[in-house]
Amino acid sequence: MESKRANPGTPRLVLASGSTARLGLLRGAGLDVVSCPVALDESVLRDRMRAENAGQNAIALALANAKALGFSTNPHFMSADFVIAADQILECDGVGFDKPENRQVAREQLITLRGRTHRLQTAVVLYRDGEKLWEHLATPELTMRDFSNGFLEAYMEAEGDVLLSCVGAYRLEGPGVQLFNTIRGDHDAILGLPLLPLLAVLRDFGIAKK
């Protein structure tokens, strides 16, 4: 984890995640933020909540909150830190999809989603000293086209194992954009972090300039 800050007298902004996409969005917006992955077995919480018939939106929010709270056990934790955490679950007809375990699972997911509309339940939270200050849920909606089996195989070959790090087995910033007919929602929320509402609340707390 990076631990230096531009001004030691100002609160530090921490992303409780190792996601390069989320870190890139924050730094691209001009924020001075450090990244710190959190040790969290997401599958335990996710499976328990699904067994309780929790909604996919509630699961995404619960995982984001768990990541933020998990950072408080990190040796680099400082109580003055503002901590951002996020999570994303793909939902199609009430069923949640996670990152595929292997290429076969990725292929099956894409075949299931082909020609159908799904939502990305994208949750983000802001914490300080173990207290939740704010949370937000964005639900961009995406419709896949009825692509051919030949396109699917060529797409999977081109993308390789990078598909395994993506919910739904696609990247809109890559060839995955060709899977879709229509996309509704902010691009940053699709990438995993609803940036505009987050920037607004960071301005309220004096972390981003007004």
Could you walk me through the main structural features you see in this protein, from its secondary elements to its overall organization?
With 210 residues, the protein is an alpha+beta fold. The protein has a single domain (13-204), classed as Maf protein (Alpha-Beta Complex). Helices cover 34% and strands 23% of the residues. The protein has seven helices and eight strands; from the N terminus they run E-H-E-H-H-E-E-H-E-E-E-H-E-H-H. The protein has helices at residues 20-28, 42-51, 56-70, 103-113, 149-159, 187-191, 195-204, and strands at residues 13-15, 33-35, 82-92, 95-97, 117-128, 131-138, 141-144, 180-184. Strands 1, 2, 3, 4, 5, 6, 7 and 8 form an eight-stranded mixed beta sheet that branches. Helix 1 links the parallel strand 1 (13-15) and strand 2 (33-35). Helix 2 packs antiparallel against helix 3 (56-70). The model is unreliable at 1-8 (pLDDT under 50).
